[in-house]
Specification:
Elements lengths: L2 E5 L8 H14 L4 E5 L5 H5 L10 H5 L5 H4 L1 E3 L2 E4 L8 H4 L8 H6 L8 E5 L6 H9 L2 E6 L11 E4 L7 H16 L13 H5 L7 H4 L4 H16 L4
Helix pairs in contact: 1-11
Length: about 240
């Protein structure tokens, strides 16, 4: 059985897909068998890793039962991917039968023994897709920018775009720690710093770890992966 990690935050633009790509790439480089599941109708995870998401079967086909999961999973340089595209936006209306929150869990049962880690990238909303991710996950990671509004509606917290020099960033770190303590969880020691390489990597179909392996964010993500492997070792 694999360890399943959902990357989630109802707020957009906080680095969920960047984090998902980096975790997949880093774990793959460590020799782990990894699967990335894209539950965002924007299809950003597959796109960022160079897949032609508009001309392939997707997680939508799997969840509605029209394609077996093993036929839909596609390889990438960062491991296997279960891609998504805009068709998944119909999920909220179409997946309306009892038990709809278990659709992803049922689909992954067929392949969970094939992987050490499954990373699920979620949409910026609390909907049936996000709930499916929560049902199957062994752990949640909540990427957030070090801003006051990011603390609203906040699993384990990862600070993205972090700059120790900014007073507000340090204050948000302190407040995030207090919130995490109330939730009986924690803030990762690793803080992901910002860099232009993070924005450039998707245009090249790569994660920041392969596009700019010597960059500060790449080093930060490697530190994060070390924390994750210690906290949630693959079975």
């Amino acid at each position: 059985m694999s360890a399943v990690i959902a990357i989630t935050n109802q707020k957009g633009g906080v680095g969920k897909t960047t984090t998902s790509c980096a975790l997949l790439a880093g774990l793959h480089q460590m020799g782990r068998r990894v699967l990335g599941v894209d539950l965002d109708p924007q299809g950003s995870l597959g796109f960022c890793l160079g897949l032609d998401i508009d001309n392939c079967a997707t997680v939508y086909d799997v969840m509605k039962g029209s394609r077996p999961i093993k036929e839909v999973i596609v390889p990438s340089e960062c491991g296997d991917i279960l891609p998504s595209n805009i068709l998944l936006s119909a999920a909220e209306l179409e997946f309306n039968r009892p038990g709809r929150e278990f659709l992803l869990k049922a689909a992954l049962t067929e392949v969970q023994d094939d992987y050490d880690y499954i990373i699920v990238d979620t949409p910026p909303a609390l909907n049936v897709l996000t709930v499916n991710a929560y049902v199957v996950a062994d752990g949640l990671i909540i990427p957030m920018a070090p801003e006051i509004l990011s603390l609203l509606g906040v699993a384990q917290i990862l600070l993205n775009k972090y700059n120790q020099r900014f007073t507000l960033n340090r204050e948000v770190l302190d407040m995030a720690g207090q919130i995490a303590a109330q939730l009986d969880t924690s803030v990762f020691q690793a803080k992901v710093r910002t860099s232009v390489s993070v924005a450039e990597a998707p245009a090249h179909g790569e994660s920041v770890l392969s596009y700019a392996p010597s960059s500060k964010p790449a080093a930060d993500f490697r530190a994060l992966i070390d924390e994750i492997v210690r906290a949630l070792p693959s079975p």
